[in-house]
């Protein structure tokens, strides 16, 4: 296991385009870091530079404090798992897993290889498939074989490039929890590329958000969700995405298309002398006013909305409320939406209500939200004006503590197992 440090890493391809632009990131020993961002933002390029499949144009890459820019991939001792598992069709599962050990020609005895393969196969529940060929396996089983191949090497770190994107939704969910469990158990430093929201939010200790090759924010999932630094991060993290609305200042109120939000000290300080801002409200910040308790209701903003469409998902009810946007911010929001791979449907409010809500398609509904949950962004710089650095730091500190506990438990367990085995 090892730490991985990126220092001002730049990648320019032949055409001079900076696919990765001045990225600095410290990945601690045993940490699980997720890289996310829209298609083409440089995720795979960054991963390939770490493993050594791609030259680094400038900057330093360090593994455990040693600069490895010029080290060949096989000498970096990192294990990569790709989206298309790249298994050898003519080899059995056993031999596929053993392959990286056989490659080292004599470094491992047959009995060492056998014990490592069997250890990996039992971790991944592949014992009964060891004699089969990859073609006869399900997608999830193949993915596990690919992970087995990474595990046997006991490499310094795992690098995953969208390993689950070829699987159907159910299997993806299962494999996701398996990867989380495995990483906790082995406590191997892991960098994991995805553009799946759920994977990004659930798997990692920290998530790094990339936009056109530039790192926007690195934080624990909770801090990213709660305290995004800018419009891009706010819009990228969360599903359904954060609602963005034009907000005009009118005296003591911030006026959004469907409501007047009374400005408290926090909002007044954030907005300063601006008269136009972009307001961000997460879908889950809204409630059906009819189900909000009366004492809570008074602290929030209540408004009438003509609900267009509703979607009932069992645990939640999504309601869509169209609104007219303000031409002054329309262009910024449309551009942002394109960048976020969106479908250009930003002029409707999406609210996630309690599934018990009786609101249905076409209803005139009364909705509620708490102004404390409102984010405000500068329309020019797109920076968050409401972000609370102290709060973000304390959320991250809690997450780091949780990780340390998990890593310590994994090490204790490994030590116990080693003791039992010898
Ligand atoms: N070999 C190459 N030569 C020139 N440009 C490249 C090369 N590989 C990637 N690029 C460019 O670098 C940028 C980043 O590509 P990269 O594959 O790292 O994106 P990504 O974030 O992994 O995207 P995706 O989510 O679609 O996999 C893109 O603009 C891409 O066109
Ligand atoms: Mg990619």
UniProtKB/TrEMBL annotation:
Locate the ABC transporter domain: which residues? 4-237
Q: Which Pfam families match?
A: ABC_tran, OB_MalK
**Which organism is this protein's natural source?**
Occultella glacieicola
* Alphabetical list of SUPFAM superfamilies matching this protein: MOP-like, P-loop containing nucleoside triphosphate hydrolases
Gene3D superfamilies per record: 2.40.50.100, Nucleic acid-binding proteins, P-loop containing nucleotide triphosphate hydrolases
Could you confirm whether the keyword Membrane appears in this record?
yes
Against CDD domains, the record matches this protein to:
ABC_MalK_N (cd03301)
Signal peptide (residue range): none
- GO MF term set: ATP binding
Q: Does the keyword Nucleotidyltransferase apply?
A: no
Q: What keyword terms does UniProt attach to this protein?
A: ATP-binding, Cell membrane, Membrane, Nucleotide-binding, Translocase, Transport
What's this protein's name?
Sn-glycerol-3-phosphate ABC transporter ATP-binding protein UgpC
Q: Where is the composition biased (Basic and acidic residues)?
A: 385-401, 409-422
